[in-house]
Amino acid sequence: MSQRLEKEFSSDSEEKWENCANSSEAAAVYCSGDHISSLPIVDTKLLHSVSGNQSTDQDEAIKNPELKTVSLRQPLTEKSEEEEIYYSSKPGDIVAKKYQVIRELGQGTFSTVYLAQHLETESYAALKISKSSRDFLESALKEIKILMKLSGDKHIIQLIEDLGIIGKNTKHIGFASELLGPDLESFFTAKQEFHINNVRKICKQLLSALDYMHTEFGLIHGDLKPDNIMLSVSSDCLKKMADFAPENFVKELAIDVSDPRCHIHEKLGDFGLSMERPVDLERCTLQVCTFRAPEAFLTTIVDTPIDLWSVGCIAFQLVTGFTLFNCDGSSSYHGWSHLSEMCNILGPLRMAPFQSHLREIWRARFVDGVFVCNPNDKDIPSNMQYEVLDVVQ
């Protein structure tokens, strides 16, 4: 787990951050004005080489994945932090003096991801580069540390190296990871139906990855959704990905998940929200609403079962092609409506499992230990009128 900014002290040196920070040092620092705060960073000697070979020290990294802390000067203006600026790069740009950007793969709340090629080895990688603010820098560092820990599992995306501080006018933190094929959401967008055999493979592999996280390291993923579950593809397919836009990957790579013989090797990614269990929700928010467990609404403390709830929701979507719950967060009463929909579809929601950490704002919604649904809720949409157990079976 990433540490918070540890200490601040006066800086009397005019040394520029460019002279101190580079990808080989994996420098990750936050500075403001005349004060500097040090952040934990990754020693890249413990990581994979870009060519994909294991470094001689990787086993030690897995056994002792502690991050070093250094203090380097990196001026960040208040304006850049407030604006939370995305890193901007275009095809042909060189990142960290070693990767050439081919195209943007996507942009999320925390970062931008690029498809890039290493200048020396010509191997492909995905570069994930954070937005420029204290919270996003910390999130990127935390994700790097978590990826170091989880590098021993074949169903979790593999970290290649930490790229350290990137950018001039605004400062960002980036890392390179293995390049993977389309995420599961891409297949829904392409209107592909998953054969039940492939649904079983994906769910089994996803549960294996989660078991590794939960039992070996006590980590909760906290953001499971189809966008964060990707399929491995061959090296020939990786070359093709350099020629096509992300929205065309499924079609151009000729991946047919409706074919029971389709090769499925799932990899779990995006650990920006991952935390050590249990998690205090008074300090953070986990899970996209569509895949959020009831306790993530109702309680202040959550644990690994929230990930398993998300797996169930994802499995339902893989089988049916649509989400189990229709999430509309536009209303201030959405939490009540969402929980009411859970009750309408799955049956009564009882207080007992949530009572020890129940939020006071929800206590009045339970009568005789049973959740009272929102009377303004609409009937269950026709596409939701399934016997859920029949779908699972």
From TrEMBL:
<keyword id="KW-0067">ATP-binding</keyword>
<keyword id="KW-0547">Nucleotide-binding</keyword>
<dbReference type="GO" id="GO:0005524">
    <property type="term" value="F:ATP binding"/>
</dbReference>
<dbReference type="Pfam" id="PF00069">
    <property type="entry name" value="Pkinase"/>
</dbReference>
<dbReference type="InterPro" id="IPR011009">
    <property type="entry name" value="Kinase-like_dom_sf"/>
</dbReference>
<protein>
    <submittedName>
        <fullName>Protein kinase domain-containing protein</fullName>
    </submittedName>
</protein>
<dbReference type="InterPro" id="IPR008271">
    <property type="entry name" value="Ser/Thr_kinase_AS"/>
</dbReference>
<feature type="binding site">
    <location>
        <position position="128"/>
    </location>
    <ligand>
        <name>ATP</name>
    </ligand>
</feature>
<feature type="domain" description="Protein kinase">
    <location>
        <begin position="99"/>
        <end position="393"/>
    </location>
</feature>
<dbReference type="InterPro" id="IPR017441">
    <property type="entry name" value="Protein_kinase_ATP_BS"/>
</dbReference>
<dbReference type="InterPro" id="IPR000719">
    <property type="entry name" value="Prot_kinase_dom"/>
</dbReference>
<comment type="similarity">
    <text>Belongs to the protein kinase superfamily. CMGC Ser/Thr protein kinase family. Lammer subfamily.</text>
</comment>
<dbReference type="GO" id="GO:0004674">
    <property type="term" value="F:protein serine/threonine kinase activity"/>
</dbReference>
<keyword id="KW-0723">Serine/threonine-protein kinase</keyword>
<keyword id="KW-0808">Transferase</keyword>
<dbReference type="InterPro" id="IPR051175">
    <property type="entry name" value="CLK_kinases"/>
</dbReference>
<keyword id="KW-0418">Kinase</keyword>
